[in-house]
From TrEMBL:
Short name of one Pfam family: SLT
Domain Transglycosylase SLT residues, every copy: 118-215
Protein name, UniProt field: Lytic transglycosylase domain-containing protein
InterPro entries with a match to the protein in the record: Lysozyme-like_dom_sf (IPR023346), Transglycosylase_SLT_dom_1 (IPR008258)
Family indicated by similarity: Belongs to the transglycosylase Slt family.
Organism field: Mucilaginibacter boryungensis
Domain of life: Bacteria
Amino acid sequence: MIKKHLITCSVILVLFIVSQLFIGSTTIKRKSVSITTIDRAANNSSASTLIRYKKDANDDINFADESIPVNNANVNRKLKYSLKQHSFRSVGSNLLHRKALELFPVIEPILKMYGIPDDFKYIPLVESGLCSGTSSRGARGLWQFMPGTARTYGLKVGKGVDERLNLKKSTVAACIYLRELYGEFNSWTLTAAAYNLGSIKLQRAIHKDNKHNYYLMHLNAETGSYVYKLLAMKEVIKNPVTYGYKNTYSWLKPSEELLAVN
């Protein structure tokens, strides 16, 4: 009797083990079919509507290591538009790259010394762009300081002297100003926006929208596109070929105008 019972138990145990092996092999097959089905769907254009979000090429773009909400359709549209506007097809000149070649070796170490993110070196390219001289509002130099602001941050303006045109001195003044703005806004993106708009006006805009995020705020056209211009400038300088520019700066010749501001 005990023998029969043991045999019965052994048979049941064997059947149980076999059933588990069968179930396991079926699960593996199902998983394999599932992965194959997904791969096929990804290659099928009719299945593209099932993909909610495809990683955008601009996901790697950021300003001062602060992320950009590229999943926001409005943000993505503005970024793509700014990149297009800064492509060689739109600009039609290599002056921006020539400026970068000459200005960055002077600007970069000063930014680093004052603890300002490297991405702020693109401000002079955006501020002065392809033009130079004094703006209609009186701003002058590569950092486009107004006379009063320049004096506030240690630059001499007047009596035949204008240190806004001195690259090193104006960069130091810009760094002091930027550090002050960052202390107020605790965001490098908002610091860049405040550099363009002014801290008082930006504070008003933040309170009005009740948002502390540049990309989600309602700002005037100039400031609303300002950081996007910096992002685009960063991209075309770092990846010239992608945007139609040449892949080397070695052929560029220094301009007399740029040499004069050093």
